[in-house]
Amino acid sequence: MTEPKFTKGPWAWFGSAGGCPDVYLATKHSGRKYVMSFRRWGMRGAQPQFRSDNVLVDASELLKFEVGDKSIVGIEAARKDTSVYRYQVRGIDSPDARLIAAAPELYEALQRLVNVSAEISPEAQKADVIANARAALAKARGETP
User: Taking each helix axis from N to C terminus, what angle separates 95-117 and 123-141, rounded to the nearest 10 degrees?
Assistant: First the structure.
């Protein structure tokens, strides 16, 4: 079997929404290797957009922050809430953004499931593999931090 060529996970969304905004997808290990970022184009800053209620919404409206009230979503709401005094990003409140960030864990969990199903293994190992697959799927749905 060949080694996958994508950046090994886990991944998460990071960046800052204050000053010079910069949101990027990176590893949680190895000094945050960049997986996805954006380049400024023209006179406007570039940012990802995600589908919300069948309309594309700028990521700035979906940002969740490391500091302050964890229920705050979006840069405008964060600027109005005094508990958010730093705009360091901890996530993007979008199913597609969560799926992108969970991709490495989903791949690894499903690869393990395939490997285990191809051989006879102890029940404890099967249970561990199933638990990992369920955890990766829950992360993609946004059910885990």
Answer: 170
Amino acid in the structure at residue 7: T
**Residue 5 belongs to a domain:** no
Q: Give the single-character DSSP code of 83.
A: T
| Domain range for 79 | 10-93
Q: How far is CA 104 from CA 37, 43, 49, 50, 80, in A?
A: 17, 34, 21, 20, 35
Q: What is the pTM of this model?
A: 0.67
Indicate if 121 and 144 belong to the same structural domain: yes
Which of 50, 69, 93 is at the close of a domain?
93
Asked whether residue 16 falls in the same domain as residue 71, the answer is: yes
Q: For each of the chain's 145 residues, which pLDDT tens digit applies?
A: 567 677 788 888 888 887 777 788 888 888 888 888 876 666 667 788 888 777 888 888 999 999 999 999 999 999 999 999 999 999 999 888 888 998 988 888 888 887 776 665 667 677 777 788 888 888 877 786 5
Q: How far apart are CA 145 and CA 135, in angstroms?
A: 11
